Amino acid sequence: MAPEMSRPGGRTARVRAAVLAAAGDALIELGLPGLDLAGLARRAGVGKTTVYRRWGTVAAVLEDLVSDMVETSAPRADTGDLDDDLLANAGLVRSTLTDPRQGRLLTALICAAVDDAGTARALRRFYDARTAVWEPCVTDAVARGDLPADTDAAAVVRAVSAPLYHQLLTRGEQPGVADARRAALVAAAAARAGAFAAPVSAGARRTS
């Protein structure tokens, strides 16, 4: 697990930004096996001792990199309309995946997560955090009566991004505007049809 870190300022912030940028570049170019702290220090132009003292392991650097991605992610849309909100979400996912650096970085992190449990945990936290940010788009629609009361908000949000990631990771094709629009509108239609009803627990089934 990454060490506890207070939010840095001044020189500390510049060092963190430089090391995390270097880590992202190295992960894209070399993959997880090519990363080491001394190499990251050289890339970042900072002292090796500083990097060892602050992070200690490559895994801690990658966890901090993912935390930074959460901190700097764009806010959710709040249009008051489910379709428009999900279209905005799909557009954001598409723009991230097609960004020359961010798309490659996310792909590299997903590959690294296959072999490294720490990276996998960090990436899961990233996606859980981003999903939670967008869940109010769905819960607000439930409150307006636009969706069934038992709609699983997280499942709807994941359904928007899933086909876009699938297209990139399994076909090597960057999702286009039409792909993003289709993903959002299909998720919205399925949600209205009750396809994302929250699962009923075993205990609830026994007492019903």
Automatic annotation (TrEMBL):
<dbReference type="InterPro" id="IPR001647">
    <property type="entry name" value="HTH_TetR"/>
</dbReference>
<dbReference type="InterPro" id="IPR050109">
    <property type="entry name" value="HTH-type_TetR-like_transc_reg"/>
</dbReference>
<protein>
    <submittedName>
        <fullName>TetR/AcrR family transcriptional regulator</fullName>
    </submittedName>
</protein>
<feature type="domain" description="HTH tetR-type">
    <location>
        <begin position="13"/>
        <end position="73"/>
    </location>
</feature>
<dbReference type="InterPro" id="IPR011075">
    <property type="entry name" value="TetR_C"/>
</dbReference>
<keyword id="KW-0805">Transcription regulation</keyword>
<dbReference type="InterPro" id="IPR036271">
    <property type="entry name" value="Tet_transcr_reg_TetR-rel_C_sf"/>
</dbReference>
<dbReference type="Pfam" id="PF16859">
    <property type="entry name" value="TetR_C_11"/>
</dbReference>
<dbReference type="InterPro" id="IPR009057">
    <property type="entry name" value="Homeodomain-like_sf"/>
</dbReference>
<feature type="DNA-binding region" description="H-T-H motif">
    <location>
        <begin position="36"/>
        <end position="55"/>
    </location>
</feature>
<keyword id="KW-0804">Transcription</keyword>
<keyword id="KW-0238">DNA-binding</keyword>
